Amino acid sequence: MRACLITGYPGFLASRLVEAMMEQNLWDHYGLLVHPLQLETARKKVKHFSNVTLFASDITVEDLYLSDHHRVWMQEHVTHVFHLAALYDLAVPLKAATAVNVIGTEHINQLVRTLPRLERYVFFSTAYVSGERTGLILEEELDRGQSFKNHYEATKFAAEQRVSALSDVPYTIIRPGIVVGHSQTGETVKFDGPYFIMRFLDRVRSLPIPYIGTSQAFFNAVPEDYIIKATLCLAHAPEASQRAFHLTDPNPYKSKDFYLLICRELLGKEPTWTMSSTIMERALSFATIRKLFKVEREALHYFGCMTTYDASGAIAILEKYGITCPDFKDYAPKIVAYYKHHRKDRDKEISVT
C-alpha cells in the first residue's frame, strides 16, 4: 500500500490538496496529522472516506503525540509527506510563530528521515521568505542576509533553511505568492490578504474612492487551484527533487492596477484621488481604525513590495503538463463575486486586533 501523509488539515490548502489527491486517486491511503483542537472538524470532513486515517498530533511537541504503532505504519506505507501546518497570520507573535513554523518543522523533518519508502517531502514555504529584499528574486536563492517585515516571514525563512539542509531527503519546497480563491468559483475559506482591499472598499463605498499610495510595486496573487495543481505536479516530477519553486504569477499586475480591477468589480466605479500610504499606515496603527476597516496594518506592506519573483524553474516543469497560472483579470470577477455573496459570513472574517 502506498500512503500519503499531510499536516495542516483541515486548513484551507491542506483540505483542497486532499480533495484533489482523492479525485485523482493518487494514493491508496491518506494519513492526516490533525491538531487535537481541530480533530472534530476533521472527522466531519472525512467521515465518508474509508481510506483516511486521522492522527491527533501537535507538531510543536517532539514526539508529535504519535505512538510507536503509528510510526511503524508510516514507515511501512508512506511515500510522500506534505507539510502545510503553520501559523500564517501576518501579525502572529514571535513565540507562537517560532513554536509552530520553526520547531514544528524540525519535528516533521525528524519524522521524514525515519520513512524508508519516502519518495518526496513537500514543504510549503512562501515567496516572502525574501523578506525586505527588492528587485528580482530567484528560486535558487534563500539567504541573502535579508531582514523581514514580520515574524511570519522570519519563521518561514528559518523553517525553509532547515528543510533545504536535508541533503539526504528528496524534498521539494513550494513558495506560493499571496493565495486567493478558486479561479473558476472564487471560493475561499478566509477573507485575508487582498480581501482586505474589499473590506476597505466596502467601508468607503459611499465616498470618493482613493488609491492608497503611488508605489509602482507589483502585487503577486495566485489562485488556490493553480497552487494545488502545480504542487501535485512538482511532487511527482523527478527534476523537482531538492529544489525550491516560486508558485507566483509570472505576469503580475502592479498593486495600483490590481486595486483598480477589484474596485471596478466590487463598486462599479474607479478611484478618483490618492491617499498617502504613510497616512494610511499611521491610521492603521490605531486598533479602532483597524477594526473599523477590518484591515491588518501588516497587509499594507505587501502592496509596496518592490520585488519580482522569477518562476522560470516551476514554469519549465509545469508547462510540460499544461499547467499555467491564470491571468488575474480573467478570474477577478469570480473572486469578487464570491466575496460579495459571503461578505457577511463571520466564519470567513479574519480577527483584527
Automatic annotation (TrEMBL):
Pfam families for the chain: NAD_binding_4 (PF07993)
Superkingdom of origin organism: Bacteria
Gene Ontology MF terms in the entry: alcohol-forming very long-chain fatty acyl-CoA reductase activity
Domain Thioester reductase (TE) span(s) in chain numbering: 6-230
Cited Gene3D superfamilies: NAD(P)-binding Rossmann-like Domain
GO biological process: long-chain fatty-acyl-CoA metabolic process
PANTHER family assigned: FATTY ACYL-COA REDUCTASE CG8306-RELATED, MALE STERILITY PROTEIN 2-RELATED
Protein name: Male sterility domain-containing protein
Organism: Fictibacillus macauensis ZFHKF-1
